Amino acid sequence: MIKDILTGVTAYISTSIDYLIVLMVVFAMVPKNKRILVYFGDIVGTTVLVSASLMIALVLKSVPDEWILGLLGLIPIAMGIKLIVAGAADDEDVIQKQINNRRGVILNVAFVTIATCGADNIGIYVPIFTQLSVASLIVVLLTFVVMMTLFALLGYLLVCLPTVAKIFDRWGTLVTIIVYIGLGIYILFESGTIQHFINLI
User: Given this model, what pLDDT does residue 92 score?
Assistant: First the structure.
């Protein structure tokens, strides 16, 4: 169970370090009396992304050999390398456009979450979900709920502590790169993919 919790914490942090800055910007744009709605919007957006990842993982589970599924570990490694080469995307225009839209705060934040985190979240969650049993998956999903709440609270606090936000802005991408590549290597080992190719040599 501890291993599953650590997996959930690591996976969530890897996809949400940069999103902390997004949350800070969103909280700053939304009126104080509506900031609680940002949290609910985050829940809606994250639920959509997790559900999509679960459906894709369920389909991929039909693959007979686990080592083949392990090749999905190359996705987060590729994402980490892409961050090294291209750097992080600037999501400020997306945030501004969605928050100023006439839809309600919850839907706007959900769209911001999906637009800024979609590819990263699915790219990380699918390889992890394919490796988990039902019991482990439940623990990981519950861990996501806790982490999402903590990150929303932290994003709110960052509005009041811009100096801390600058630290995340400066070092967040580096942390994300390390965790992406680390998760990818872990998936390749855990599924036996690396061992499979070593045995072929």
Answer: 58
Distance CA 29, CA 15 (A): 22
Q: Which tens digit of pLDDT belongs to each residue from 30-56?
A: 777 888 888 898 899 889 989 988 998
- Residue 75's closest CA among 150, 152, 127, 140? 127
Please tell me the pTM assigned to this model.
Answer: 0.71
Cβ atoms of residues 188 and 70 within 8 Å: yes
Residue labelled with tokens 């570990």 = 73
